Each structure stands twice: as C-alpha cells, then as structure tokens.
C-alpha cells in the first residue's frame, strides 16, 4: 500500500511538472483524452488483484495514472484559460466597461493599481468580449496617459463603470529575471491596461457594491484603518502585510532589507503565523465550549470539547488564511492541519511524509502553477527539513531534561537555535538557486526575529483589528525589529551574492545540504559536501581570450547593454526609470548581472535621458567601485571623450564621441542630450560592435565620414530604431550583419520606425527587437547568430508576438 501511494504521488507531481514545461499548448482534446486514459488506468489499478509478483506492475500503473490525471487536468485548465485571451484588435482602443474591483487597490507614488472582474464591455457602442479578469492602473494628473488628477476612493468589492485601454499581458524577458507574464497567468489576469478619465471620456462612476467580495472589502477596510492610525508608512506597510497579507504595502527598500537579513519569510503570512493562530483558536474554542457545556450539558454529549476545539481552531485558521490572501504557505499549513485533525478524530496516525506529501499534492491540485513559485519550494522544503532532520523526542526524554524553569528556558532556546541553524543551512543552496544570494546574518537575525514577530508583533497586530490601540504597541515592536535588521544589514558580507547555478547543480547542492543536517553518521553527512562544493566553486562560462559578447537586456523602452570579455565586463547604459521609486537598475540590471556573476569594471552612461540613465543610482549603489563614464557629469575624470581606449583580454574598447570641443568651459555639453551620447566601438580585430545611445543622424554621418574604415558586425540600433538615426551613411560604412533594437512593447514612439526597418531590409541586415526577442546575446566567435532569451525560456503562458513581414528571424539562416 505504501509503495502504491508513493508511486501515485510521484506520478501526480511529475504530471504537473511536465505540463508546466510545455512551450505551447496542445488542443483541449489531447488533454481530455490523456485525462480519460488516467481515469481508465485508475479503475484498472483499483480492480488489480494484488500479489507479491504484481506489486511492481501495480505501482507502475498507479504512477502512470497520477501522471496522466495531473498532466491532463492542468493542460485542460490552461487551454480553457488561454481561450479567454484579449483579442489583438482590442489593444490600444477605448473600451467602456462595467466590473467589480477584485483586489486590494495598491497605491504607488503616482498611480493606483487594482484588479477588476468584467461584467460587460462596449467598444464604439458595440458589445465586445474581454477576459474575465483585468489588471488596471489609474494614473495621477500629469503622471500617465490620459490621467485626470487624484483618484476617487475605490475599494475592493465595488462595482465601477470605467473607460480603459487594454493590451495583452507582455513584459520583459531576461536571464534569471522575474517572469511577470507567468505571475499574470497565475493570477488569472487576461489583460492589463489603464483608466482613461480625461474630459473627453465618460466619467468614472461607482455604480454599487458586489456582495461576493466581502472578504477583500473587509481586508481593504482593515488596511486603511492601519494606515490611518500608523503614520509611518514603513511601519504601517509591515503591519498591513502581517494582518491582511498585503505585501505590496511594504516598500521595495524594506524588501531588500528583509532579503539581506534572511527574514523575508516572516513578513508574509507564513505557516508559523497560521499555526500560532490555530493554536490560540483551539485554546479559545475549547475554553468556551467547556464553559458552555456547564450550562448546556447536551453540547458535550453532541461533541466533546476536544473535538470542538479542533474543528473550531481549523475553521478559524482557514478564515485567517483566506483573510490574509491565501498564499501557498498558508494553504500548506491549513491542509496539513486539516489532515492531522481528521486523522486524530479517526484514531489513525500517518507518518509525517504522507501528511506532507498529501498537502503538497492538494496544493498542486488547487493551483498547479504554485509549483513555479519560490514560496512553494521554501515552504514545503523547510517543513520537510524540520520533520526529517529534527525528529521529536519521546516524552520520557523530555521529563528527564529537568523541570526547572531556567533549564526549560535554556532547552527551548537551544531548540530554537538548532532548528533555525538547520533550516538556514539546508535552505542555503535553494535560496542561491532561487534568488542568487544567501544571507550570512540570517541565522542571527532569525534568532531574535522569529520569536519577536511570532510572539509579539503578529499577536499585537491581529488584536489591533478589534482594539486599534494595540497597533500602537505593534508599531513600536516593528520599529525595534527594523532597527535590529538595519544594523545587521550594515555588516560587511551580510549577504553573499553568487551566480545562479544550473538547475541540476542547484538541486544536487540542496540534496547535499539536506545530508549535512540529517541525524545520520558523520561519514554520510560529510558526503553532502561533495554535492555542495560544485555550487560554491561554480563560475559561469565566459568568452575565450580575444573574444567578447554583447548582451542587450530587455528593459522595455530604454537601454542597458552588457559587454563581456574573458575577465572583464562593461555596462553600457542603466535602463529607464519607471517611477519615483522604481527603475530598471534596481529591478532588472542589478539582479540579472548578479545572477550571471558579473561585477562591472566600467559603467558607461551614454547621456542623461531617463530611459538610459534612469537606473544609474541603483547601479552605482550596487557596485560603488566601478569606473564611471558619462557625457553629462561635471567630474572630468568620469567623462567619456573621443580618443579614450583600453584593451581587456585582447579586446579593444574605443570611445568615438563626444569630443572635447563638444563641452564648454563649465563642462556642459554644447549639443542636445541625444547628440552628446557616448559612442563606443568594441573590436577584437575580426569582429566589432557599435553602441551609440541616442546619437542622431548628423553625428552618425560625421563619424562615418571621418572614419570610413570603421566596420561593425553588430549595431545596437541608435535611438531605439527612431527615424532620426540609423542613417544610410552609417549603415553603408559599418556594414553590420545584425541590428539589436531595444524598445518597449507597443511603445508610444512607434520604435522601431517602419522606414528604418525597411532601410535594414534593403541592405540585407538581420534585426531583432526586444519585445519579440527578450534579452539578446551576440558573440564574436559566432557572429552570424543572435540568441533570444524569450525563445530559450518560452512557456505557453508567454505572449508570442505575431511574425512581421519586415523582420528576419534570429538564427544563422535569417528569413522566416
């Protein structure tokens, strides 16, 4: 029986994992047929006459059954969801819709973001079909498209009539970057867009309340009460995250602090919080039930107090988990509590792996895409480690430990320290694989933070829902926690950043870390070092000496380019600024470079425009020791000037523009910002790359006329493919084989311009644009090929752009 259950479980997990690896979906009939085959195999397995000789065959049949059922139902659900996609013709047009606010509105510096369930939609007074679930942004006056001042009061559960513009969910695609398209898919978001509320559009109007969104409505009310009472936004955001699960209320700088100190798991609704709540609920319900039974003895006869306490605690824990957003750790905890309670009431006891595995399978049944979430892995692996590496001692051993309060306190502290050390060590390779960093101070931070958050901060915050002045005490506790973490984060090597290893190497290291903490003989435990060491020593492959590669990151409407040699790297531009507190440097450039193991030796910012220099502050903060060159700073030592050149590993870097004559006596550029763009040529004597920011056609032509001998196999499209750049003279001089266009999806400038693409096509130049390609990699040792990250990492939830007749497909042969 045990092996059969394990086989079915493994098949189920493998079925989900295999379906999530698909690059494209099959027709629904295929998934339906496979699911039906799984049902038939389940019936055959049930009818199987089990004998010792046939046990292996039955296990194989059950494994295939689980695989077919999981693969079929996950695929069928995916097809049903994909059929609700936004029609391409409805992108970028005004649509009047009625719908219900289906999430907590998230207020940013200049925008309000919320999700909406659609009831009806009109486009040009014609009924149109939209995806059922949207994500919308409402901009402040002057801060976004068609904005009209401050927003009205909008709450979850309200029905609104709005004029919106929508687009298909499409985001950036970079190595080890955040997959926002997958997140949209997991949330069921079929289209994204913004509210149009200018004088030319129908006024936004609240038209009523939706009765089926009471939980989110109450969550919003509680969150608003927290922010109204606690005036420090950092503290209020932390309390909102702990009480209602609104993690968006936490500032991005605070998330960095929590990750650096290894306590990010504590500021979300973790399994520990739900378990504590359930324990308190069990005590409270049991106490009330026994008191009521004194007045109505029939209650005790109908249900004993112990059972009533268990069921009551489970129901209240479920309610708390739902109220707090129903995240994966909360789901796992509620399901495991339900299994433990059910088994106890039936007088049965399962081994912990069976309960753990059943909860994992149930989570994947409810939400197969949870398999791809970091929280899923950290939550389930941490629980498994605690059960496997720290088995519970029998009661006799505990009694022999002594009954003195001091000794019991010491034992409790030692148990907490041992548990935290075990989990920290065992999860380190997994954290490295998922995030590219390991918190060195995490053990010390959690030693205080776990009891402080669990026993002080969270209870005060929850009681504050009923008695608001408890939030004042919770705020003081939160401020103390933040001060402690801030002090630890200032330590040298508080967190170690390492290149993200390949999946197989990371999983082997996770297995090795598990061996190290298991209660087994030392000879077996030290074997774990064999599996862990490759991750610690691993260095990503680099170009050979004399070769180089160019990686054009996908940052939307902006530019950020990495040039790598055998032992050095240069970052050209730092990406755009997305808002007052968000930029590509923080969200894309720094995380991607750290995941790739890059530490830029030189950062060159072509010019001051925010789509090129928007992430400069974040990049400088991450690598303060890097050499800095730009065309707009007052520091002469950091100025890019024509004639500057250096050689790394046999590769020549040469600055071609601007010259000294383009600066006045005060160091201010004499030309426009675009015309002052630093222009860099990288060459190994055989192949060359040309990077010129937003340089205009006049300056391009001047450079080409002055240096007619210049050639470049690769051209990064000047000014994102604008019609004011990529002059015929430049193209005829450089004779590039490839052009990389960095531009945003459906950007308002129309980049790349059709006439520029036609100019490339006439000359036989192949090109790729970042919306279709994602991050693009070109290598000097293989100059005829460009590798697109969007193609390498493609999954069925990713938006695939329709093929353009003017574009040539990335690859050796062009065309297509």
From TrEMBL:
Membrane topology annotation: Multi-pass membrane protein
Predominant subcellular localization, coarse grouping: membrane
Domain Metallo-beta-lactamase: from-to ranges: 557-745
The protein, known as: DNA internalization-related competence protein ComEC/Rec2
GO biological process: establishment of competence for transformation
Transmembrane segments: 29-46, 266-289, 309-329, 350-366, 372-390, 421-444, 450-471, 500-517, 524-541
Protein's cellular compartments: Cell membrane
InterPro entries given in the database record: ComA-like_MBL (IPR035681), ComEC_N (IPR004477), Competence_ComEC/Rec2 (IPR004797), Competence_DNA_uptake (IPR052159), DUF4131 (IPR025405), Metallo-B-lactamas (IPR001279), RibonucZ/Hydroxyglut_hydro (IPR036866)
Cellular component aspect of the GO annotation: plasma membrane
Annotated keywords: Cell membrane, Membrane, Transmembrane, Transmembrane helix
NCBIfam families, alphabetized: ComEC_N-term, ComEC_Rec2
Gene3D superfamilies: Ribonuclease Z/Hydroxyacylglutathione hydrolase-like (3.60.15.10)
Pfam families documented for this protein: Competence, DUF4131, Lactamase_B
